[in-house]
Amino acid sequence: MRSALSGRQLTLAAGDYAAVVTECGAGLRSLTFQGEPLVLGYGPDEPAPAAFGQLLAPWPNRVDRGRYTWRGRDLQLDISEVERDCAIHGLARWKAWTPVREEADRAVLACRLLGSPGYPFRLALEAEYALDAAGGLTVRLTARNEGGAPAPYGHGAHPYLTVGEPIDGCTVAVPAREHLPVDERMIPRGPAEPVEGTAYDLRGGRVLGDRRIDRAFTGLERDAGGRARVRLTGSARTAELWLDDAHPWVEIYTADAVPAGDRRRGLGVEPMTCPPNALASGTGVVALDPGAAFTGTWGIRAG
Length: 303
Hints:
The protein is mainly β. It has one domain: Beta-galactosidase, Chain A, domain 5 (Distorted Sandwich). The protein has 1 helix and 27 strands. The protein has one helix spanning 278-281; strands spanning 9-14, 17-22, 28-33, 36-37, 54-56, 62-64, 67-70, 73-76, 86-88, 98-103, 106-113, 123-132, 136-145, 151-153, 156-158, 160-161, 171-173, 176-179, 193-194, 206-207, 214-220, 228-233, 238-243, 249-253, 267-272, 286-288, 293-302. The protein has a 9-stranded antiparallel beta sheet, with no helix packed on it. It has a 6-stranded antiparallel beta sheet with strand order 16-25-24-21-18-19, with no helix packed on it. A hairpin with a 2-residue loop joins strand 7 (67-70) and strand 8 (73-76). The protein starts with 8 loop residues before the first strand and ends with a strand.
């Protein structure tokens, strides 16, 4: 029997929630609540468009020219975003991940990321997806250094929240005090700045209108459990993404350059452990010692 382009399809269900996770990249291909999508999805025989639902490791977002220095060693990543001359979104999102545990409401997938010239380190990655009838989806990504030297590490994820209508008329709430300005190649050229008095102040909720946003936010306000919450509210429903304190950054993207049928019909909400260009700048990069592990958790639920 022919398998899908994105490999095995792991289906999860709990209460009114249902999800599909792919063997390719351990990506979130679909998430629904009461049959309605909470994220922009795609077909099993499509490569994930515009990084829909992908996990981003061992770095999220861009590395300028693909160049960075680690412990005195100059390294060069393959350029995966040719138009901006950047390496983007890590090495694991197109790898085959092995399902190691499958239950009705939970799946665990693993990936062995072996060394390469641009990233001469060895990681064991594990992604856990769990659905709960009350709480929705929880995603936990863990990296363990299986090599003999400290490795630079960061991760993220790339779901697009949707409420089934164009986002222009939706209210977006991002509890961030700062945003990170970028240049025309989407590379940071200075420190984060206050959102106060700018179009990027989405605290408390703002109608998105014609704002075009593709940048990282930080200084996140969190609840007593350490979670920050980004909400997209339309005329009839709400989708919410939460991220734990392993993720000090969140990228917000108004889906202006995704395939035409989905353009500005979803909001990219990307939990990140470090900002864009972190491998080069060093900001927020985890020095993962041999044998050590790092874990971050985020989730999505209907509002």
